[in-house]
Specification:
The chain is mostly helical. The protein is about 35% helix and about 10% strand. The protein has 2 helices and 2 strands. It has a two-stranded antiparallel sheet with strand order 1-2. A hairpin with a 5-residue loop joins strand 1 and strand 2.
Length: about 80
């Protein structure tokens, strides 16, 4: 896994995401083949970006919880 190549493509929008009516954001942060450190870096990058783009008008807790799971596995 080449993290240097993956980060710019993620930042460039090459990611599948979904936002539900209840404002739940669902997205992929890695694959099973990624190392633990690479997955942690990806999760931190996603959280940092979500916090960075938080609208100024948003009040209260912006991130309520974060859950990580495999595609078909339990959270």
């Amino acid at each position: 896994m080449d993290v240097a190549k993956a980060s710019p493509s993620f930042k460039g929008g090459e990611s599948s995401t979904a936002l539900t009516r209840s404002a739940t954001l669902q997205l992929r942060v890695g694959k099973v083949s990624f190392s633990r450190d690479d997955l942690i870096k990806n999760v931190r990058a996603v959280v940092d970006e979500i916090v960075r783009v938080k609208p100024a008008s948003a009040k209260g807790r912006y991130i309520m919880s974060i859950t990580v799971s495999s595609t078909m596995g339990p959270a």
